[in-house]
Structure formats: C-alpha cells, structure tokens
Amino acid sequence: MSAPMNGLSGMPGGEKPTLRVILCSPRGFCAGVVRAIDTVERAIAVYGAPVYVRHEIVHNRYVVDGLKAKGAIFVEELDEIPDTDAPVVFSAHGVPKSVPESARVRNFITIDATCPLVTKVHREADLHFRRGREILLIGHAGHPEVVGTMGQLPDGAVTLIQTPEEARTFVPKNADNLAFVTQTTLSVDDTAGIVEILRARFPSIVGPHREDICYATTNRQEAVKLVAPLVDAMVVVGAPNSSNSQRLKEVAERAGCPFAMLVQRAADIDWDRFEGIASLGVTAGASAPEVLVEEVLDAFAERYALNVETMSATEENMFFPLPRALRSSEAAE
Questions:
Q1: What is the pLDDT of residues 144-158, one digit of tens each?
Q2: Among residues 312, 311, 313, 309, which one has the least CA distance to residue 21?
Q3: Out of 145, 211, 295, 309, which one is annotated catalytic?
Q4: Full domain range(s) for residue 71
Q5: From the CB of residue 202, how many other CB atoms can be counted at a distance below 10 Å?
Q6: If I label 61, which of 4, 76, 200, 213 is the partner at 20 to 30 A Cα–Cα?
Q7: Which parts of the chain register pLDDT below 50?
Q8: How far apart are CA 29 and CA 11, in angstroms?
Q9: Would you call 196 a catalytic residue per the annotation?
Q10: Can you give the pTM of this predicted structure?
Q11: What is the CATH number of the domain that holds 138?
Q12: Exposure string over 307-323, b if 16+ CB within 10 A, otherwise e
C-alpha cells in the first residue's frame, strides 16, 4: 500500500518539502511610514481619542485597523468630520492646498503627517510655478500623492504624464520652458524611460537635482531585482492600493521571476500557484509591517521546511522627526 501523499508537495505524508526562502532587504516600513504612524499614535497620546485622519494614514489595512482600535477615526473628506476640538491628521501621501485651508476655516487643529520626501516634490513644483515654467508630473492618476501634488498649484498648472506614449505626444505651450517632477512611489525603470523620452524631445526641460522617487522605493526595488532571478516565485506583502507594493510585483516579474503575488495577509495566498516551487522570494511594500511578513513565513512553514536567508541591496538608516507640534508637546512633558 502506498504512503499518503501531501497535495502541495507530492511527498509522503508527514514529510515537508524543502523551500529556500530569500528575504529581500530592505523591505517593509520606510521612515515616512514610521513617522506617519507615530504621528497618529502620538496625537492620540497628547490629545486623547478620537483623532481624525483624512484618508488612510498609509495604505495598509492592518495598520489602519490597529490605529482605529487606539482611537483614530478615518475619513476621506473633511466634511465627514463634525465640529470638534479633536485634531485632524493629514496622511503621509500629502493633500491639496485646499484641504488645510478648509480645515482652517472650520478652526480644526491640524497635524501634517505628509512624508518629507513628498513635501520636497511639492516645493519643487511650487518653485517651478513661481519661475513661470510649465510643469509635468510623472505619476498615476487618482493616487492620493498625485492628487496632493497637483493640488498645490492652480488648475491647469500641472500636466500628468502616466505613460511613455503620453510623454511622446505631449504638446507644450513653450518647449523651452518646461519642468518635471515625479510621484515618489513609481518604478525606477519606468520613470527613467519616461524621463529619457522627455529629455530627448525637450533638451532644456528642468528636472530635480536628484530623482523624486524616494530612497525607500528605490532600495526595495533594487533588492527585488537581486532576488527575482534566483527564485521560482515572489510574494510581495502589501495592499492592492499601495503604489510601491504594486511596483514591487511588476519589478519582480520584469527581473526574471516566473510569477509574483501581492498579498495583504497570509489568508490571501493562492496555494495552487506555489505548487512544486523550490525557492521563494519575500518582500514587503513600504507601508507593510514586518509582523505580516512573519505571518506569511509562518504559513509557508506549515507546508514546507524553510531554509531562510536574507539578501541585502543596501542598508537603511533614514529617520524623520515627528511634526513640530507633536515634538514640542513631547518636550513639554
């Protein structure tokens, strides 16, 4: 009589197949996300619950639910907030100028958790506008960061460029008076291609001194590029509405990984897709906490005997301080 078989591994019951797991480093939380989460938690500690947050503070359901449990109330627009003395926190993605103005009219206490690297893009766009340049924003329509950046300036001052084709067909008012900025969470390679087209068409176009794509996005993509050619599959822990997580999945597949799967939690894993693999890469988007990576690893460990190693693209030691209002309150205690 033959031994029972394990459906996932095709091995005799009780024996787990070996799986080489390569963890990408860096992965998970970046300094801007840590700052945003700490901002909400600190605001709750200083002001008490509730604290209102406009839009998801970061794009991760686990994080948002955890902050809700501590006393945060998330809204999409300020008109959902009643008249209140509770503070209102703006998310890490940044907001149009009209939002803090509306908050001022309603006398809200506001705390801006916009990532400093997004704020840098806002300042670049404003500088170009004041110098009379026509501004192009390389990004994805509807993403909160793009909405926030375009909302720093009057309607029509910024043209969104989403694809190489749009870069090829864009018709400027004055080809010698252009500037561009970019969404911080894009694919490095995709953005480089669009910038190359724009620079070829408009040699005098002014860009940032350093690319606007943030260090964390770049570092996580570089780590994925190292691991992707070495594994049979890649798991990206992150939310479907997280731009940088979606880009990690795309980068993995483009860099030679047979397939990559974006999952929010271990429960989202489609195990049929992993039938017969011998190696697995694991990374996480910049808004995904390490506890969810561990949850995914635990799920694989139930089915495989894991040999786990880490492959690092670079070391990260970036730190952003809390918004000034919360730093001063901390110092006063």
A1: 999 999 999 999 999
A2: 309
A3: 145
A4: 31-115+321-332
A5: 21
A6: 213
A7: 1-12, 330-333
A8: 37
A9: no
A10: 0.88
A11: 3.40.1010.20
A12: eeeeeebeebebebebb
